[in-house]
Write a structure and sequence with these properties.
This protein is of the alpha+beta class. 27% of the residues lie in helices and 32% in strands. The longest helix has 22 residues. Pfam families: RNase_E_G.
Length: 374
């Protein structure tokens, strides 16, 4: 088994991190994926001083006022029990904000009693540092000199290398491209389709060309492989909450036979548990939320900011291939507005690739934004 490799791809306004693990036979496989936007981090692991603003007995906890006007929730089991309104606490963010709700918190001891005002004491580790701690045998490779220096200071020079080529090769780029959409092709045909809603995540297995076949063993094999891939996608995309999976072309009575085969995949994800099977034959799962799901980061469909940052990432490569060329970004006005509003993205592009002219095209369709020579 080859040692895991952590790849860190840095581009204007964004940091993408991939954990690759595998062996010499099957090759490397994407086992973890993070897309972070450092100007506005999700906050998991951040340490705060916050004030208990309201008890919530019915919810088993309390609401805390945090820096920037944000409100977090501290469960009784994590330190809210016995606390009074107006009390100051030192707390850490254990779950990112979601769906209009504030972050989940846990009390943390300190050298002295905390006092106000609400403030951020320290940022938590980003994805490369979290993965490095979880996989101490892994090495890290990045294409960004400042990031390499930061990681070497934290982890030691021996674990971190700086690549002159992009950190992500074509295969990793394709894997991240798949993560940006809700359809996942399956080897041998068929696909998974993910449907996130405010209440739950529904996953449909489409058997493709095998859908009309009568071979029960083939249907079982396809569904078993599709279920394994569905659990992998749930983990890669940081999906959480109630999850239902509909299998393809199997009688309900035979679907239970596939549940024992899920155990190795469940063991790989400590946040995921199998609830059982519904009366309609849907596999029911529940996953604890920690990080922001990728579709909330990227938007579904991709947001103007996501499309703009992608154009900047490609533009940096265009600039490297055409040194000295004056570049322009042609995009829909909404994309350009999102980039102007996002702290640091355009400035980072200028430092990496030189000046960039912005050209608004109201008729530019989504996905057609591009950086080009003037």
């Amino acid at each position: 088994m080859a040692a895991p490799l952590i790849l860190v791809s840095v581009s204007p306004g964004e940091q993408r991190t991939a954990l690759l693990a595998g062996d010499l036979i099957d090759g490397d496989r994407l086992e973890a994926a993070f897309i972070e936007r450092p100007a506005r981090p999700e906050g998991v692991g951040d340490l705060h001083i916050a004030r208990l603003s309201a008890r919530a007995p019915a919810m088993g906890g309390a609401f805390l006022a945090m820096a920037g006007g944000e409100t977090g929730f501290l469960p009784d089991s994590e330190g809210a029990k016995g606390r009074t309104e107006g009390e100051w606490l030192r707390v850490a963010v254990t779950r990112a904000a979601q769906g209009g709700k504030g972050p989940r918190l846990a009390a943390r001891p300190g050298p002295e009693a905390p006092q106000g005002p609400p403030r951020l004491l320290a940022r938590g580790p980003d994805a490369p540092l979290r993965l490095a701690a979880q996989h101490p045998e892994a090495t890290l490779r990045t294409d960004h000199p400042a990031t390499a220096a930061r990681l070497r200071a934290a982890l030691g020079a021996a674990r971190v290398s700086l690549s002159t080529a992009p950190a992500f090769d074509e295969a990793v780029e394709e894997a991240f491209e798949t993560l940006s959409g809700m359809a996942v092709p399956l080897p041998g045909g068929g696909r998974l389709t993910l449907h996130p809603t405010p209440a739950l995540l529904a996953i449909d297995i489409d058997a493709g060309a095998a859908a009309g076949g009568r071979d029960a063993a083939a249907h079982r094999t396809l569904n078993a492989a599709a279920l394994a891939e569905a659990l992998r996608q749930i983990r890669l995309r940081h999906l959480a909450g109630a999850i239902l999976i509909d299998m393809a072309g199997m009688p309900i009575a035979r679907r239970r036979d596939l549940l024992p085969g899920l155990q190795p995949h469940l063991a790989a994800d400590p946040h995921l548990r199998l609830v059982g099977m519904t009366g309609l034959g849907l596999i029911e799962l529940q996953r604890r939320r920690v990080h922001t799901p990728l579709h909330e980061v990227l938007g579904d469909p991709p947001s103007p900011l996501t499309r703009g940052l992608l154009a900047l990432r490609r533009g940096v490569r265009e600039a490297a291939a055409r040194p000295g060329a004056r570049l322009a970004l042609t995009a829909h006005p909404a994309v350009l507005a999102a980039l102007r509003d996002w702290p640091g993205a355009l400035e980072e592009f200028t430092r990496a690739a030189g000046p960039l002219s912005l050209r608004a095209d109201p008729l530019c369709p989504p996905g057609q934004e591009h950086v080009h020579a003037e």
